[in-house]
Each structure stands twice: as structure tokens, then as C-alpha cells.
Amino acid sequence: MIFRSPWPDIPAPRESMCDLVLATAKLHGGKVALIEGETGRTLTYAQLVARGERVAAGLAQAGLGHGQPVAVVLPNSIEFVLAWFGVLLAGGWVVPINPAYTPAEMEMQVRDAGARICITCAECAQALEGVVEKLFVIGANWNELLENRAPRPDVRIRPDDLATMPYSSGTTGKPKGVRLTHANLVTNIRQLEVVGWARHDDVMVVIFPLYHVGGLNCMLTVFFAAGATLVLTRRFELHKFLELSAKYAATFFGGPPPVVLRLTQSESCANAAFQHMQWGICGAAPLGAEAHHAFEQRTGALLGQVWGMSEATAVISATPRDRARRKLGSCGHLLPSVEAQVVHIDSLEPLGVGETGELWLRGPNITQGYWNQPQANAATFTSDGWMRTGDIGYVDADQHIFLIDRLKELIKYNALQVAPAELEDIILSHPEVLDVAVVGAPDAAAGEIPMAYVVRKDGARVCAEDIMQFVSSRVAPYKKVRAVEFIAEIPKSPSGKILRRILKERARSASR
Q1: 40 or 418: whose pLDDT is higher?
Q2: What's the CA angle centered on 489, arms 439 and 255, to 5 degrees?
Q3: What number is the average pLDDT over the span 166-192?
Q4: Which residues of 212-231 are buried (b: 16+ CB within 10 A; e: fewer)?
Q5: 483: which strand partners?
Q6: Which residue among 25, 460, 475, 505 is least crowded, i.e. fewest CB within 10 A of its CB?
């Protein structure tokens, strides 16, 4: 059975990402597009275009040709956005890289992508010396680009040209370059416009990193298309987020479940931060209905959930911006022009309404494939155009999508499948638990057992036996948590995904 979006299909884009930003700038030239939360610096839409064209001219003079990559290794900042837009205007494509990576991690992605030019910050410059032919460093020779007076390069940017290649998060293996075209980006923007994602008078404090699709494609490009304003932050700090939300009258919230939980549970959340908040989205992992409801009660804002991944440009499904049409715990409806099917995990037979299996997708926002990864492409993409997502879930009779877990993260207890996210949702409802991650720990008799790594709230005295009893009264016997370890912090990726491989290795080491 093939599931489709309740919204009408959208036409194939004829414009590039550059065309879209230039059109917005003409409408909102003097309006502030970006604010740096830490410094207060601003950038209007007109300045974005003018300075982006200088960067493009400078990159062309440095040898960047049409269809060539540039590595951008920067934190959230005005410079990141100018680098991103300048590369696109020059006809190149961006390889966004986490500036917190080790030198070896940075070098792997730069060399894998084949980037000869890199734009970075002073903190990362030494690690990248010798890795690329030309290095532009903020605060140093970056000014050569900003002060360039040559005309913008005359290149014809086509919708099917590559625009960016983020690397998959690598939570289950080696990161892979995800090829995204201008058409992919513009398609996802148009899809989210139909949903009612961002509006021209919206203001949002961005806590997702821009080197991740959650920040770059869910926030930056969509808000630019709408002519809205973004407040950039380099990292999430609760007090700073609340301060900036109040100062700039933020109307839109976006964050992963851990941030939603902190905002819900914190005693310091001031009403001023949410005085103008109207709408928010939560993504990167499933959010339980109880936490969803608690956030709305605390903030007064309507919260929607989204399902997304790098391979789908950013967003696959979203909750309608309409309280009457959403369901708590759901990731909403498929976006326009997206199709899905639910496939049996073992037999690969198509399943129907309400049946749980792996979700497969196809649509115009789906990646062109992984960069130089033929085996991964063969394992992920079928000959008839479907992409295997690795996400386990189902579609109900009202076309709402519910995610259960990741295929590779399912725990096999005596051959029975246990979803970590289900147990995590239960444990998070315990009044003394701040955060939790559940993984499969090796067990000689059962193969794997569900093991919980728990972060207590300050002053809490809950013990392992308390946690196990709390869960056992709420699940079938085979799903019971059978081991608990208390830790100071759950390891997570920048987008908020739990790095289960780290905890699995910890569990394996403990069992040796």
C-alpha cells in the first residue's frame, strides 16, 4: 500500500536556491535577516546579497569553478551564512563541517568531498593547513573575499546542480556525504510553505547548528524564503535561549526532544520568553505525547512534530499548523509530493494502515544518493526509486505518521523486538529522571537485554530497582528494563540524537 500526502503535489522547481534568496531580498531588502545572539551584530537581506556577491567574486578569483565544492567549517554566525550564499552564487556547492570535530574528522570529510578551498575560523585553521589548497580564515584573509570589488561570476546555476553535501550523523557507522541539489532545497522549502511552516513576521532563536540540515535546511533556507528573522546562537544554553527569546520577541521555536524536556522541566523558564511564541516544531527523535502536552501547557505555544533526515533534504512529514488537525505523538502528514510505504522488517512485504514496519520513501526532496558510496547506495535505494529510511513506524487511518524507533537500534530480546524509544518515553515520565537512553546490552541467555543509562535530576535519590519497577508495571514482560546505570550526561550528536553506539560499546566493555 502506498501512502500519500493529504496536501496537493507541488510543481518541480525551475529556480535555484540563489534565485529564491535574491527574490526575497528584493521584497525585504532593508529588513533584518540575521542577528547574532552573542554579539548583537545584524545582517539585512540587502546586505546578505551584496556581501554574498563579493564572497562569490573572491572565491571565483581564488579558483572556484562551477560545480566544485568548498568546505565551510564554522560555528553559527553571519560569516557562515555569507560563506554558504557566496559559494552558491559562484556556482559551487557547500560541504558543511562541524568545527568541533577533531583534525582527523575534518580532514576525512574535506578529502572525501574533494574540496580544494575551505572557509574556517581561527580555532580550526591549524588543523586544516595543508589539507586544502586555499584556506580563508575569519578575522584574517577572509576580508579578501568581503572586500573584493570584482563583479559576481556569470554562471548559470541549474536546479539539478549540487548545492550542499552534509554528512550523515554517523550514529550507526561512518558518516556519508549526502548529495543535495538546488532542486532538493527549493522543493523542501515549497513543501513547508504549503504546511504553513514559517511566515514573514516570524522571529526564531536558532539552536540547531547550521552545518546540520536541521539548522541549514529546516531553519535558514525556509526562513529566508519567507523573509523572516533568525537569531543565531553558537550553542544551546537555557538561560541565553530564554533571554534572547524575550529580547527579540521570538514567535517560533525549533529544537530536539532534550531541549523540549528542559524547557518543560526547568523552574527558570520565564513567561517573557514565551510571551510572543505561537508555533514550534520538535524533531531529530520521537517526542512522547506526555512531554508534548507538558510543553504546550508550560509555554502556551502550539507544538508540532516533524520527521526528517539528511537524505530527505530536511523534512519528510510535519504536523499541520492547526490544533484541530494534529495528534499528540504523531509526526504529522507526509509533505506534498512525498510517497511512503510501510514494509515488513523481515519479508519486505508491503503493509497496510496501522501496521508497523520500516518506512520507505520517494519524492522530489530525496537525495541523489551518497557521495562515492556504491555499496551504501545499493543498500539504501531500490531500483524502482524507493529509499529505505531505517525508521520503524506506521501510518494510521487519518494519514498521520507515528515513529517507533530506528531499525538498527531495535533490541533483540530472545528474538523479540524492543523499541528503545518506547522505554525512554516511560522512564522520562519518572519525576526524578532528567534524561535517559536505552540500548541493548549483551546477554549470554537472551542475546540482548534492555539497559537504561539514566541521568538523575539534582537531588534525586531514585535507584536502579526503582527505575526497573517503574517500567515493568507499564510494559509487557519481554520489554522490561533489566539493567540500569546512572551517568552524568547522555552522549548526543549536535542535532540532539542519542549516540547509542557509544553507550553500546560501554555496555559491551562492562560485560567482558
Answers
A1: 40
A2: 90
A3: 84
A4: bbbbbbbbbbbbbbbbbbbb
A5: 451
A6: 505
Pairing label, strands 162-164, 315-318: unpaired
Residue 113 lies in a domain: no
- Asked if residue 389 lies in contact with residue 403, where contact means CB atoms within 8 angstroms, the answer is no
pLDDT tens figures, 370-422 = 999 898 899 899 999 999 998 889 999 999 999 887 777 778 786 566 878 88
Contact 387, 364 (CB under 8 A): no
Between the alpha carbon of residue 76 and those of residues 84, 93, 96, 110, the distances in Å are 11, 18, 11, 19
The tally of domains found in the chain comes to: 1
Q: What is the 3-state secondary structure (H, E, C) of 315-384?
A: EEEECCCCHHHCCCCCCCEECCCCEEEEECCCCCCECCCCCCEEEEEECCCCCCCECCCHHHHHHHECCC
Sign of CA dihedral 87, 193, 7, 342: positive
For 427, the domain range is 410-511
Residue 273 and residue 291: Cα distance in Å, rounded?
A: 19
Instruction: Tell whether 358 is covered by a domain.
Output: no
Consecutive H or E run containing 219: none
Kindly report the CATH number assigned to the domain that includes residue 417: 3.30.300.30
Which three cell numbers mark 108? 576525512
Q: Are 113 and 96 in contact (CB under 8 A)?
A: no
Of 327, 312, 344, which Cα lies nearest the Cα of 401?
Answer: 327
What is the mean pLDDT of the segment spanning 348-366? 95
pTM: 0.82
Helices (H) and strands (E) in the chain, counts: 16, 25
Instruction: Tell whether 492 is covered by a domain.
Output: yes
